[in-house]
Amino acid sequence: MVEPVGDQEFLRSIFLMEAWDSVVVIEDGMARIASGAAEPSWDDIFVVAHRLKGAASLHGFTGVAALADTVEKALRPLPGAPPSARAAA
To answer: Is residue 46 within 8 Å of residue 75, measured between CB atoms?
Structure first.
């Protein structure tokens, strides 16, 4: 069953709002890592990266899903890692 165009646009707009919220959380975490001043909220970062991956997959945005998966995998070893390992990642 194909959804009407209006429904597709509505769902896409919801996805985009949620995706931007996810990007903000990830960017904030990366800024904290880069500054070395404060530990980011790892749980928040991992949850939103995983949620972004799932939502993007659900809506057929395979490139966004792949990027979110890469972010999730790149960040997984960083909690508790020394600053040099964090900077390299």
So the answer is: yes
